[in-house]
Design brief:
The chain is mainly alpha-helical. The protein has two domains: about 10-135, Rna Polymerase Sigma Factor, Chain: A (Orthogonal Bundle); about 145-195, Arc Repressor Mutant, subunit A (Orthogonal Bundle). It is built from nine helices and no strands. The protein has helices spanning about 15-20, 25-45, 50-65, 70-75, 75-100, 125-140, 145-155, 165-170, 175-195.
């Protein structure tokens, strides 16, 4: 018995779909990056509500500027998004410095922030945010595959199950098992290349 595969391995990347104003793609971009933008803002010293506000501003900017994104010109999407976030964080801190009365009694709680130091992604990136991002990406891509295809990928790649055992369990050939795994891996690679 051979598995029928959908055209998921040739579907446009998430960013390509978002550039075309695909609502589902925008939802996925938001699910992938809102936690990262929030973490960047919190690590820069913002309180929870301010970090959420900056995140909203980043997505407003993204809605306007995403069509201008070109990897060849600007580098990786994540770096482009990081730089956009840093610009909005700097603007946030400049506004607060000019108008401390906007903070009321909490003005003294505002941390001393090296605004120029915000330009270095290593100051606010860590392995936890990268792992969490990959986990969110895998969950989002998972929805684009049949359950059986995803299970074969997961079990062969993550759990290390043998191809022959999976083939016997799913009533497939070894080649079909390898193809299922390959399709998911290719899709993940394409998304990571586009989004990183």
């Amino acid at each position: 018995m051979s598995e029928s595969f959908s055209s998921d391995s040739t579907s446009p990347t998430l960013l390509e779909r978002a550039k075309r104003n695909d609502d589902g793609a925008w939802d996925k971009v938001s699910q992938l990056y809102a936690p990262r933008i929030y973490a960047w803002a919190r690590r820069a010293g913002l309180q929870e509500e301010d970090a959420k506000d900056v995140g909203q501003e980043v997505f407003q900017l993204l809605a306007v500027k995403l069509s201008d994104f070109d990897r060849r010109r600007t580098g990786s999407f994540r770096n482009w998004l990081f730089q956009s976030t840093q610009l909005l964080l700097k603007e946030h801190f400049r506004k607060k410095a000019k108008h401390p009365e906007l903070m009321g009694e909490k003005a003294e709680l505002l941390p001393a922030v090296d605004i120029e130091g915000l330009d270095d992604p290593s100051t606010i990136e860590n392995d936890d945010t990268e792992r969490a991002f990959m986990h969110r990406l895998m969950n989002l891509v998972r929805d684009d595959f049949e359950e059986r295809t995803w299970n074969i990928f997961w079990r062969s790649t993550v759990e290390g199950d043998d191809t022959a055992d999976l083939a016997a369990e799913y009533g497939m050939t070894g080649k079909a098992v390898r193809q299922a795994k390959y399709r998911v891996l290719q899709r993940l690679r394409r998304e990571v290349e586009e989004l990183s």
